[in-house]
Amino acid sequence: MQKPLIIAISGASGSGKSLFTENLINAFSEQGRPVQILREDHYYRAQDHLPMEAREKNNYDHPNAFEHELLKAHLGALRNGEPIDYPHYCFKTHTRLPKTERLQPAPVVILEGIMLLARVELLPLYDVKIFIDTPLDICLMRRMMRDVRDRGRTMESVAKQYEQTVKPMYHQFIEPSRFTADVVVTQGGKNQIALDVIKSHIQQFIK
Ligand SMILES: Nc1ncnc2c1ncn2[C@@H]1O[C@H](COP(=O)(O)OP(=O)(O)O)[C@@H](O)[C@H]1O
Ligand SMILES: O=c1ccn([C@@H]2O[C@H](COP(=O)(O)O)[C@@H](O)[C@H]2O)c(=O)[nH]1
């Protein structure tokens, strides 16, 4: 089997990474499953040993919140044409679910997550590095709506977390990682030109 094309899509929380990824793979949905998605979020560390109060106070915007060692091992396996069983993370309980999901190797693997370009040891594993560059005030607005709607948060808790960790960690880790990207995308998940450019690059890897 030919080595897969591994594409890393990063950027702030709420920048539009997930939407960009979804819009990218929709184009290939009628061709079987040549493009697989793997989310860095699933690699948040398990926290079953901590009470809920401590979990709620954790800094989830520091690279050490992720088990990147496992992500690295999984990328190595996919490169070797082997399937992986990746963990499942729950944002409401701040820990992993007691199940894993199997991901089959594919010609193209798209990874998306906030710290993917901030870990230098992961960079050599990617073939294409994309940074979704969206102004932070827009990210906050989107996150506020999404976290209250989907992740069991209140507006107050989103605002407090943003002030205490999300914003400072963005400036410390995510913003500098923009300079490692091959492609910087403005206008988030709806930038049709950027989507078309990446799609045509992907198409070359799908026979
Ligand atoms: N360009 C855009 N215009 C309007 N809404 C957007 C745009 N990009 C993303 N969104 C919306 O903003 C929210 C956060 O986007 P998402 O893709 O989940 O961000 P991320 O994965 O970077 O955290 C989602 O509800 C999404 O539908
Ligand atoms: O238990 C958790 C784990 C993570 N978060 C927040 O999630 C975002 C990253 O997810 P996106 O899908 O990219 O928005 C990160 O900024 C963490 O603050 C959390 O709140 N709780």
From TrEMBL:
<dbReference type="InterPro" id="IPR000764">
    <property type="entry name" value="Uridine_kinase-like"/>
</dbReference>
<keyword id="KW-0418">Kinase</keyword>
<dbReference type="GO" id="GO:0005524">
    <property type="term" value="F:ATP binding"/>
</dbReference>
<comment type="pathway">
    <text>Pyrimidine metabolism; UMP biosynthesis via salvage pathway; UMP from uridine: step 1/1.</text>
</comment>
<dbReference type="InterPro" id="IPR027417">
    <property type="entry name" value="P-loop_NTPase"/>
</dbReference>
<dbReference type="GO" id="GO:0043771">
    <property type="term" value="F:cytidine kinase activity"/>
</dbReference>
<dbReference type="Pfam" id="PF00485">
    <property type="entry name" value="PRK"/>
</dbReference>
<feature type="domain" description="Phosphoribulokinase/uridine kinase">
    <location>
        <begin position="6"/>
        <end position="193"/>
    </location>
</feature>
<dbReference type="GO" id="GO:0044206">
    <property type="term" value="P:UMP salvage"/>
</dbReference>
<keyword id="KW-0067">ATP-binding</keyword>
<keyword id="KW-0547">Nucleotide-binding</keyword>
<dbReference type="GO" id="GO:0004849">
    <property type="term" value="F:uridine kinase activity"/>
</dbReference>
<keyword id="KW-0963">Cytoplasm</keyword>
<comment type="similarity">
    <text>Belongs to the uridine kinase family.</text>
</comment>
<protein>
    <recommendedName>
        <fullName>Uridine kinase</fullName>
        <ecNumber>2.7.1.48</ecNumber>
    </recommendedName>
</protein>
<dbReference type="GO" id="GO:0005737">
    <property type="term" value="C:cytoplasm"/>
</dbReference>
<keyword id="KW-0808">Transferase</keyword>
<dbReference type="GO" id="GO:0044211">
    <property type="term" value="P:CTP salvage"/>
</dbReference>
<dbReference type="InterPro" id="IPR006083">
    <property type="entry name" value="PRK/URK"/>
</dbReference>
<comment type="pathway">
    <text>Pyrimidine metabolism; CTP biosynthesis via salvage pathway; CTP from cytidine: step 1/3.</text>
</comment>
